[in-house]
Design goal:
Length: about 190
């Protein structure tokens, strides 16, 4: 990892390249800057939200190499070389991601503050389920197929809090997105 150091006004900065939503961004950053602050304050990618800034609420969730992380707990300099996907890049251009579409259809938000994190987290979570990762409520920890029922969704999404308590609609939205994904996969393998 090639980093150049610059000292301006007694603050050391590093030249950092972040690969976000398919594009490279070069930034001069204090090495203490989190990925969340780099996104929001330096790149105007304000879809990722700052709720707690302590890894407790999930509002800042993004995907790093396909896995969900709390961007408030990641240092931007440590994310060089990774594929970062934020809510701004989760769809394909103008086409919404199926999880985004399902959130709209199920009215799965009120104020919407937690929603970008909920959606990024759900996308990462569905991949974990497909990969056969069990959760603490999975009955069979060795099963290859996970039945993504409400308990599984609630447990797996428990790191994403919604202060409006829109869970009653978030869970059905994720259920529908998961079912659609299964149907699409089956059709693709016919
Ligand atoms: S802002 Fe990152 S978990 Fe709350
Ligand atoms: S919709 Fe308001 S915090 Fe979740």
């Amino acid at each position: 990892m090639a980093l150049s150091t610059n000292t301006t006004h007694h603050t050391q900065t590093l030249t950092v390249t972040l690969h976000i939503n398919g594009k490279d961004y070069n930034l001069e950053l204090d090495p203490r800057v989190t990925l969340l602050d780099a996104l929001r304050e330096h790149l105007a990618l304000s879809g990722s939200k700052k709720g707690c800034d302590h890894g407790q609420c999930g509002a800042c969730t993004v995907l790093l190499n396909g896995r969900r992380i709390n961007s408030c707990l990641a240092l931007a300099v440590a994310c060089q070389g990774a594929e970062i996907v934020t809510i701004e890049g989760i769809g394909e251009g103008e086409k919404l991601h199926p999880v985004q579409q399902a959130f709209i259809e199920h009215d799965a938000f009120q104020c919407g503050y937690c929603t970008p994190g909920q959606i990024c987290s759900a996308v990462g979570m569905l991949r974990e389920v497909e990969a056969g990762w069990p959760s603490v409520v999975s009955a069979d920890l060795t099963a290859h197929h996970i039945d993504l029922d409400e308990d599984e969704i609630r447990e797996r999404m428990s790191g994403n809090l919604c202060r409006c308590a829109a869970y009653a609609n978030i869970v059905p939205a994720i259920t529908e997105a998961a079912q659609q994904r299964q149907t699409t996969d089956k059709e693709a393998h016919r």
